[in-house]
Amino acid sequence: MADNGDDDNQYRIKEGDYVVLKRGEIFKAVQIQPRKKVIFEKQWIFLDNAVGQLYSTTFEILSGGNLKPHELKDTASPLDAVEAGTDNRNIVDDGKSQKLTRDDIEALKEKGLKGQDIIKKLVDNHATFGDKTEYSQVKYIKKKKKKYENTVMILKPSCRILAMMYHGREPGKICHLRYDTLAQMLTLANIHAGSKVLVFETCAGLVLGSIMERMGGYGSVIQMYPGGGPVRAGVENFGFPAHFHDTLHEFPICHVNALLAGTLDTSAKDPTAEEQGSPEEESMVTNTGDDAGQDVEKTEKDKLKEAKVCPTSNGERLPYHMNAMDIITAKRLLELINFLHAHVPLIECFKKLKECGGTVNLRLTDTWLRHYQVLPDRTHPLLLMSGGGGYLLSGTTVATDHSKPAGSKQAEEPAPKRQKLEDTEG
Amino acid sequence: MSFVEYSDLIQDGDVAIIYLSHNNVMPVKVQQGAQTQTRYGVIRHSTDLIGQRYGSKVTCSKGWFHVLHPTPELWTVALPHRTQILYTTDIAFITMMLELRPGSIVCESGTGSGSLSHAILRTIAPTGHLHTVEFHQQRAEKVAEEFKEHRVDHLVTVRNQDVCKDGFGVTGVADAVFLDIPSPWDAVGHAKVAMKKHGGRLCSFSPCIEQVQKTCEALQDQGFEDISTTEVLLREYDVRTVSLPLPDFGPDPESTEEATPAAPPNHASISLKTTTLPREMPGHTGYLTFATKPRT
């Protein structure tokens, strides 16, 4: 059955929406706010005119910074009626082929000439354009389009778009986590609606948001965080509906030792839990007194209480990810994923996990990603590819020999951890 | 047990995963009174499995192993192959690039052995739906049977038809379409019809570059945007302790009293925990071509 037109409403841009601006391969996450100037690719834009339009609309940026939906005019391509050469044996690259100067082009831009027309002017004023091969001409136009087009597309955010954006724009903020590695993490950890996930990440909230997207508002996510408060800026960019945030809880890692020692007062631990008073939170409070042999703890806190802590080899404080590994060695079936941009520390983790026992299918992997240009007679991999997207340590915990029956079955997953290294920005 | 929801205890009728080792994973249909042979001995379902917790260790006459709750990832490694399948590395990338999430409506062809299908079902549950098309009758029947055993049949519709001729059997409902067939360019038009009017994502998986070229051309002709082709490969590292011999350059001429002549070249080697690379790695599975259907 075809969908009916009146549910268009959910595909329309509204004020306050979190969106992603796109031009070519460049993305930027912004919020639609009235009369707010937004800078994108060296241009100031007002997004007011986008409100009420459909997502994935392409807009032209007018000279005042306002947006106008872009109409695809079927104007003649700059390549019509231009002859082409056969090869470049007679083309000399002396830098003098283009008659228009930079100032000329700026003047044309000031006059308000559209991108397409500027390109036509460039082609007309190019002395040897007609000598180029057809493929070379197409390549030239494509390059100029990238430089002079004045459009922006407004997209609905998604894990894919945001992961690509962060990786392209600010990889340092996400520990250089490449988007395909994030994809591996989400799948290997079996994140799905109804999961209970334990997350520890320093990727500005991108990993957390991606997990929440895959859970669709079902289940729960507990974010463990260092320091004063959890960082969740990245989560906002996803533009989740309000009820998704009901599934999100937090727990400061400075209380982990106390929790494991049984000295933590959990009744007032999670303020959000108190407010909600959902059955899940209630079970958290009531189970506080249970001893480790009890079944059916539904929350991570109780899970932590049961966790078998594997003491560090010489008692010294190891970087975050290693201490975190102590915590999650719990007596239940859960998928473990540990991401780091460097692989040597993960070797330590691997070693520790093997020593502690209770895990199967431990693997240290990374993925290799390569893009292709696919054109008739011009298909080949791109010239530049990603040097690396980080490493993953993954595995599954199982019952250990001397364990009592494990607790609740929910799969939990600790998200990427990283060393407190100098290359943390800010 | 179901492939989209965890449960604690193994029950009669479940499909459990016997984990013998990394390369040795087998599915077991749990049945009261049944027995299963393994290299470590016999598993007696009634005593060894039913009523035990998932994640438990089972000991047999010649060894032991763990019983795991099924997940799509374990299923991919354990399932009986009827066709070449997609592995987790590609599946994970496809899942993210198609923007799958709970509630997504997905069309897929060919179903094959159901490796990707199970992963899709896990991601789109509990509110989504998978329309999967398989032109081979026995394979279609077998996979439908498995969906039922795995308690995910309410989330999926299997159609035994040729997607290139008859399409997916639905119109204007899909958020995402996945193609893994010999001639995907013939299915692009049908994919467009199956997808929602407001748009969606498409992926085509092909081992050969010629197929990719034809598919990209068809996508372009049908008005798809953001057409991009990628490949992703998994690299696994072997973590092991390596012993490296240290060279003996002879006694140190500098040292006088400290170094006794009897100082044994004891530490003639050092031991490191490090990674080594495997001899071979998967070098190609297929090219993944993604595209976006704009609003039509």
Automatic annotation (TrEMBL), chain A:
Residue span of region Disordered: 268-306, 396-426
Record flagged with keyword Electron transport: no
Record localization: Nucleus
UniProt main location, coarse: nucleus
GO BP term (any one): tRNA methylation
Keywords: Nucleus, tRNA processing
Family indicated by similarity: Belongs to the TRM6/GCD10 family.
Regions of compositional bias (Basic and acidic residues) in chain numbering: 295-306, 410-426
GO CC, any one term: tRNA (m1A) methyltransferase complex
Native source species: Neolamprologus brichardi
Protein name per UniProt: tRNA (adenine(58)-N(1))-methyltransferase non-catalytic subunit TRM6
The keyword Signal appears for this protein: no
From TrEMBL, chain B:
Any Gene Ontology biological process: tRNA methylation
Gene Ontology, cellular component aspect: nucleus; tRNA (m1A) methyltransferase complex
InterPro entries linked: SAM-dependent_MTases_sf (IPR029063), TRM61_C (IPR049470), tRNA_MeTrfase_Gcd14 (IPR014816)
Entry's family note: Belongs to the class I-like SAM-binding methyltransferase superfamily. TRM61 family.
Protein name (Swiss-Prot/TrEMBL): tRNA (adenine(58)-N(1))-methyltransferase catalytic subunit TRMT61A
Localization annotation: Nucleus
PANTHER family (alphabetical): TRNA (ADENINE(58)-N(1))-METHYLTRANSFERASE, TRNA (ADENINE(58)-N(1))-METHYLTRANSFERASE CATALYTIC SUBUNIT TRMT61A
Domain tRNA (adenine(58)-N(1))-methyltransferase catalytic subunit TRM61 C-terminal: 63-293
Its job: Catalytic subunit of tRNA (adenine-N(1)-)-methyltransferase, which catalyzes the formation of N(1)-methyladenine at position 58 (m1A58) in initiator methionyl-tRNA. Catalytic subunit of mRNA N(1)-methyltransferase complex, which mediates methylation of adenosine residues at the N(1) position of a small subset of mRNAs: N(1) methylation takes place in tRNA T-loop-like structures of mRNAs and is only present at low stoichiometries.
